Amino acid sequence: ATFAGINLVGYYYDGSGIGQTGQLHGGFDATGKSRDSNGGYVQATYVLPTSTKVGVSWGESNLDGNSGETFKSLKDEMWTVGAYHPLTKSVNLVAEYNNLETDTGVAGANATGKARTVSLGAILFF
């Protein structure tokens, strides 16, 4: 949806055997039984008078373990804050800050991870 320079995007998914993060990655256990997964994404952007677009997004992806497996669920969660400036019709300058957290859901294990990154660069559209 777009209104007065503000753009909103959102989606949700729910499936079985499709995996998480990468298509079919972890979608099945060692016995061939499918695993359930779900997640979603929301994003809001705004175009400034300088044509620079600023935005924030958040997303989550979950993979459920099957009975008898060592993990209960796998969860990835990420949010991003970014600025995107059109240098030419085909090139946008990009600056983003990303915060990713993952939890493997293994009982009794410190199986979490975090990554905080800054990305600077350009996107070429063709």
Topology:
Layout: E1 2-3, E2 6-16, E3 36-47, E4 53-64, E5 73-86, E6 91-103, E7 112-124
Antiparallel strand pairs: 1-2, 2-3, 3-4, 4-5, 5-6, 6-7
Verbal overview:
The chain is an all-beta fold. 0% of the residues lie in helices and 61% in strands. It has no helices and seven strands. It has strands at residues 2-3, 6-16, 36-47, 53-64, 73-86, 91-103, 112-124. Strands 1-2-3-4-5-6-7 form a seven-stranded antiparallel β-sheet, with no helix packed on it. The protein is elongated and about 55 Å long.
Task: Give a summary of the structure in a few sentences.
The chain is mainly β and 126 residues long. It is 0% helix and 61% strand.
The outline comes out as: elongated
Gap between N and C termini: 25 Å
Please report the total strand number as a whole number: 7
Uncertain runs are none
Cα radius of gyration in angstroms: 18 Å
Instruction: Count every helix, treating DSSP H or I runs of 4 or more residues as helices.
Output: 0
Find the structural class using helix and strand composition: mainly beta
In what range is the share of β-strand residues? Answer: over 45%
Residue share in helix: under 10%
The largest beta-sheet arranges its strands as 1-2-3-4-5-6-7
